[in-house]
Amino acid sequence: MHGNGDLELCTTTTPLAAHKPRTCGAGRSRERPGKQATAVGLSHIDLHDSLFMSSTLTTPPDENEAPSLTAEAAPETREPVLIPVLGPRWALSVKHLAATAAFCALFVFLNHLPLRGTDLWGHLGWGEWILEHKTLPTQDPLQPLAAGMKVVDLSWGAQVIFAAAERFGGPEALVGLFTVVVWSTYVLIARTCFLQTRHALFSTIVTAAALGVGWSRIATIRPENFALLLFAGLLWLYVGRRVRRADSVLADDTRGDWKLWLGVPAIFAAWANLHGSFLCGLALVGGFFAGRVVEVLWSERSVAAVFADREARRLLYWCELAAAAVLINPYTIDAYVEVLRFSGNANLREVMEWAPLALTSVGGPEFACACLATAALLKLSRKPWAASDLILLTFFGLAAALQLRMIGWFAAVWAVAIAPHAWDVVAAWFAREKGEPAEAALEGDDDEVPQLAEGHSFRYTLGCVGLIWIAFAFSSVSRPLLGGPPRAPEAVYGDSPLKLTAWLRANPPQGAVFNPQYWGDWLAVDGPPGMQVFATTNIHLIPRMTWQDYGRVSSVTSGWDATLARYNVQTIIVDKARQAGFIRALRGSGEWVPAYEDAQAQVFRKKPKSEQAKPEATAKPAVCH
């Protein structure tokens, strides 16, 4: 062992009869570093890299053979020789280590996000209903005022997954499911960017930018998370194929096309049973087809050339295959009808996520920065832009501008489309700084490394493995294996009104309950069984007049008290942070008495007619601190 930490292996030949201590170099003194070794020679192997090697021995001599006492006939004794188990491609660089650290941090961060009190609980309640009744609902099981409204539940698959996960591991299983799905989505986006740049760290930076642009649609667990994962999978398949064809020496390289022949129908068949956003996927595959049509028209100046182009026909076949695979769902063609009907619902137009994007709204500044970055790259990048990328950027950019909820889809397309052009600009800048040709700066971290490249070492591979283990150990998904105390309910459920539903279970309300619509899912799932909530997040299932009545009461518009009487509301739940005016109106009405209050919510119950003339000061609500 040298002083520099290298491991020296040597092989010698020694007579059996001599029984002398073995020395390196066949009895000679150890040679100085750099001097050529003896017949068999010396092997210097990095101590850390030797962790990824295995030891092999030569086959021992036959036991039946008579041993010879002469030195000339003595059998050779071979020393263990370490040979690599992992190929050179597994020797990573510091850039891989940094990218791994970033994705491990993302995993831990996602795993510590709380389960927000949104439509997650409605989907969980629907999933529980499906598992219990073993059929799909024909009307909303959580919203009594939606009775008679037709239901086409395109998210039934995701709802069943949520319910099964919650049954298996409680709320932490839902957190783990959300973490794995969202994390996998951005790993796929990073991989797609890497295929175009061959630079792991830069691809991670672009992916982080996409995460920031689309964060407003990612931080909440909902069936849409599954859809975004499938969307990222489509991007990976199509862009990976485009890169493979561009790098091939064949004019029409179809190797690997089997991935799309199998992957496209599988993705859309799953998508149609997980979420109703499969039209976004159809727009994606249609964008790649339209891009090819534009390229052929531009180069050939002939419509006939489009029909004769094998690549255009192949992309069209995959579009048709995707559209047909959508029909593999319990509603068949009604799935398309429901998506169009759903997007045109008048109630949804009054919800923020369905409103047009504004600079002052959630996601507005991020979207503006993405547009400015794209404009700059159109000016600075020397690489030609693919027609399909420009088409998809335009389509999903307009969609995000018209509806805030589309920004997550735009973020994924944006990252994949700009990655090669951003890397071209950055590499050219580094080349000017170093005085090197731009082509040298463009060299990245190829998947196939024929030999241990400069800057690559198994040390970094070991570091990446360690980071992955640390991320796993610090996440709740490791608790079944490693143990540890569970998180406090407040950390798991976030802003969900836990104390409110605990009190309601102990004091079940009678009759109809008027509640904040965004709490309706939580109240229906965690409140007392059979509680008749006024509205949930499935506002598209509420009759238009009922939704208008909800708005009239919430905003304390003229006639709000008569509206409550018409629905025979006996209990009112109020969000103290958002409905301070409603609380003042209830206190001054003389018909409602406070029954409960905590930091988040307040509950009012209607006084009996015989008590409505009494002053409010006689009522003392239960207060939970």
What does this structure look like?
The chain is α/β, with parallel strands linked by helices. Helix 2 (120-133) packs across helix 3 (156-197). It has 22 helices and ten strands. 50% of the residues lie in helices and 7% in strands. A hairpin with a 3-residue loop joins strand 8 and strand 9 (601-606). The protein has helices at residues 94-111, 120-133, 156-197, 200-213, 224-247, 258-271, 278-300, 303-308, 310-325, 334-343, 364-380, 387-402, 407-434, 438-441, 458-473, 479-482, 489-493, 498-506, 520-526, 544-554, 560-566, 580-589; strands at residues 6-10, 42-46, 53-56, 81-84, 512-514, 532-533, 569-575, 592-597, 601-606, 622-623. The protein is globular, with a radius of gyration of 33 Å.
Write the layout of secondary structure elements.
Elements: E1 6-10, E2 42-46, E3 53-56, E4 81-84, H1 94-111, H2 120-133, H3 156-197, H4 200-213, H5 224-247, H6 258-271, H7 278-300, H8 303-308, H9 310-325, H10 334-343, H11 364-380, H12 387-402, H13 407-434, H14 438-441, H15 458-473, H16 479-482, H17 489-493, H18 498-506, E5 512-514, H19 520-526, E6 532-533, H20 544-554, H21 560-566, E7 569-575, H22 580-589, E8 592-597, E9 601-606, E10 622-623
Parallel strand pairs: 5-6, 5-7, 8-10
Antiparallel strand pairs: 1-2, 3-4, 7-9, 8-9
